[in-house]
Amino acid sequence: MSRNRLSSSERRYFENTFEDYDGRTILQSDDGKIAEPHYSSFKEKTVKLLKQCEEGVKRSRDDHDYSVYTGSGGMALLHLHLSETLFEDNETLKQQCLINALTILEGNQHMLRGKRMTFLCGDSGILSLLSVLYSKLGQEEKSVKYLSRLLTLSDSVCGRDASLPDEVLYGRAGYLFSLLFVQKHLGDGKIDKDILNKICQSIIVSGERLARQERSRAPLMYTWHEKHYVGAAHGIVGIIYMLLQALSTQSVQSNLRNIKSCVEFLLSEQFSSGNFPSSLESGIDKLIHWCHGAPGAVHLMVKAYQVY
């Protein structure tokens, strides 16, 4: 397979002319936190940018797009994130962020149709966010209600629906993300281990089946729209990463050797530049973002290092 480089006029990125960060200028070496006066400056600018963002969303909001990926669900996730990071030491601002996030989602509940199963693009993202937010705001009954709706989707995800892919953006791995999201925020006991195991097993069985059919060099192989995508959004990078996030499940534990072989297979497909192809069918070193390319693969490689 050829590995073609693009001319400067064809590239979709800017060359990085800066030296690598040495870890000493902004971060304190003792506790890893951002040092002053940088932290206060970042916090002040973040608050201003958040207001700009909220105003922009009001002007251009698409009421039909409730997804975390491109819609109002993403704003809700941002507020939840800020409540746990930038405003964690200010209870008033922290609570306000949680309320803002819930207000956004409550306005979109009626739009959930169960058509998509993933965290980023489907109903499970909104259901998992609602469950987490209601719990954090002390409304446990409502939290349980939305968690139950989320778990009900598992039957469809574990089924043998040939139209349901395994990838992160629209498939089984994206539903697994939703379950692990709830587990991270609300604790291990919130998600039945059997459900997690079944989801992982479904993903692994699907990958084994295609790998056998195609006599693939990798023990697990996946396609989306008849292409062997590599990246985090639609490809094997995102799928394997999510499996390793569910490391405690029996199905993942019993397949650790095959998963490692998949990581090694991906490394064998890496460009000399360090980037990764968008699909196994592509030999062009062009795309450099989370969906396709090295930025998405970084997360998998870090996790694989931690595991292996």
Can you offer a commentary on this structure?
α7 (172-186) packs parallel to α9 and α9 packs parallel to α12. It is built from twelve helices and no strands. The chain starts with 37 loop residues before the first helix and ends with a helix. 37% of the residues are buried. With 308 residues, it is mostly helical. The longest helix is centred in the N-terminal third of the chain and has 23 residues, at 38-60.
Secondary-structure element order, N to C: HHHHHHHHHHHH
The computed structural class is mainly alpha
Cα gyration radius (Å): 21 Å
How many H/I helical runs? 12
Instruction: Classify the beta-strand content into a percent band.
Output: under 5%
Keyword list:
308 residues; 12 helices; 0% strand; mainly alpha; single chain
List the helices and strands and how they pair.
Elements: H1 38-60, H2 72-84, H3 91-106, H4 123-136, H5 140-152, H6 154-158, H7 172-186, H8 193-214, H9 236-245, H10 250-253, H11 256-268, H12 294-307
Helix pairs in contact: 2-3, 2-4, 3-4, 4-5, 4-7, 7-8, 7-9, 9-11, 9-12
Structure summarized in a few sentences:
The chain is an all-alpha fold. It contains 12 helices and no strands.
